[in-house]
Structure formats: C-alpha cells, structure tokens
Amino acid sequence: MHIPGSTTAELSLVTFQEALKAANTPNDQYDIEKWLYAPNFYSEYRYILGTRGKNPLICIGINPSTAQPGDLDNTLKSVERIALGNGFDSFIMFNVYAQRATDPDTMEKNCNPILHRENLEAFRYVLSISPKPAVWAAWGTIIEKRDYLPMCLRDMLQVGQELGAGWYCAGAISKKGHPHHPLYLRKDEKLKPFDVEGYLDRL
C-alpha cells in the first residue's frame, strides 16, 4: 500500500528533465537498458515506468501505485501483455496525475500546478519516442475522483494533438463512456480507436 505522506506541494520535486537524466544513468538497482523509470527511485510521485523500445504502447491511468522496475503489479502485467499482444515492442505506464497513491481516494484534493507541468513534459517526451505514438486510454471510472483530473487530461490531449498521437481503448466502455481499466481484460484483447476529445466534452 502507498498512502501519500504529504501533499506534493510540500515536496521538493525533481523536474522531469532531471529525472530523465538520472533514468539514463546506470545504477545498481535495475537494468536501464530494459527499464525507463523516472524518477529512478521510489517516491511520492512517478512520471514514467515502462520498458524501452522504439514502438511503445503508452498506457494512461489516473495515478501511479507501488510498481517499480522488476516489481510490476497486476495492472502493469496486464498492460505489458496487451502491448505485446497488439504488436508493440514495449510499454510505458503514464498517468493523468503523477502523485503515487494505492487508493485514489487518498489523492490530494488540489492539483499541484508544478507537478502537473512536469508531468506534461514527461508526456511530451514519451510521445516523442515513436513517429506515430499510440496512447491507450485506460483509466476507468477513477477520473471522477477529483475535479482537476479532466483538466489535466485535456492538457494531455492538446500535447497529443501537437505530436500526432492516436488514442485507443480496450474492452468495454462504461455507461458514462469511461474507457476500461487494464485489469480483467482478456490477454488477447485488441485495441480500438477512442474519441478522447468527444469523451472529454461529455464529462
């Protein structure tokens, strides 16, 4: 379990560029040739966790939990299976908001604009890895937990439009239009186009 020990505004945040530089520096904790992990240490927030490749599937959840390189939770194991099963050579787990919390009900009540800004920098980076970035909307109903989450997602949509991102979903859409969470999907589930702009307009 990870329950936030403080609001992220109380922390001295590592910028994404600082975190990326560290993530590309060899260390004795994990293989940087396989893993992309920023920040490269366990903390109250996480920008990126994934495997390295030239054609990653970028999965979007709401907020990070406890997963780390070599210690994937069931959600991340499902993400990796779906990515490989749909022809991608790697996966990246990204989140609408970067604060780490096992229970979304414990996420901070207010958006930290500095954390959000750095998270957008991280999103811009992961989209730049491939010429046609594929983004898997996979946040389920958790986006309803905080009022600021749709705003954060809308900013991500704008960055995605600038970099030519294609948006997809997998599994059944909820009655309210939310895309399915990665858990409990068939391992051979195929991605299908997702109208994220229309979805946001209906939220």
Kindly describe this structure.
This protein is of the alpha/beta class. It has 5 helices and 7 strands; from the N terminus they run H-E-E-E-H-E-H-E-H-E-E-H. The protein has helices at 16-23, 74-85, 113-128, 149-162, 196-202, and strands at 35-38, 48-51, 56-61, 90-95, 134-137, 166-169, 192-193. The chain has a 7-stranded mixed β-sheet with strand order 1-2-4-3-5-6-7, with helices on both faces. Helix 3 runs parallel beside helix 4 (149-162).
Termini distance? Answer: 30 Å
Largest sheet: 7 strands, mixed
Radius of gyration: 16 Å
Average of pLDDT? 96
Helix content: 25-40%
Low-confidence stretches: none
β-strand percent reads 5-15%
Q: How many helix segments?
A: 5
What letter string, H or E per element, gives the SSE order? HEEEHEHEHEEH
**Strand order within the widest beta sheet:** 1-2-4-3-5-6-7
Quick recap of the structure?
The chain is α/β, with parallel strands linked by helices.
Descriptive tags:
203 residues; alpha/beta; 5 helices; 7 strands; globular
Topology:
Blueprint: H1 16-23, E1 35-38, E2 48-51, E3 56-61, H2 74-85, E4 90-95, H3 113-128, E5 134-137, H4 149-162, E6 166-169, E7 192-193, H5 196-202
Parallel strand pairs: 3-4, 3-5, 5-6
Antiparallel strand pairs: 1-2, 2-4, 6-7
Helix pairs in contact: 3-4
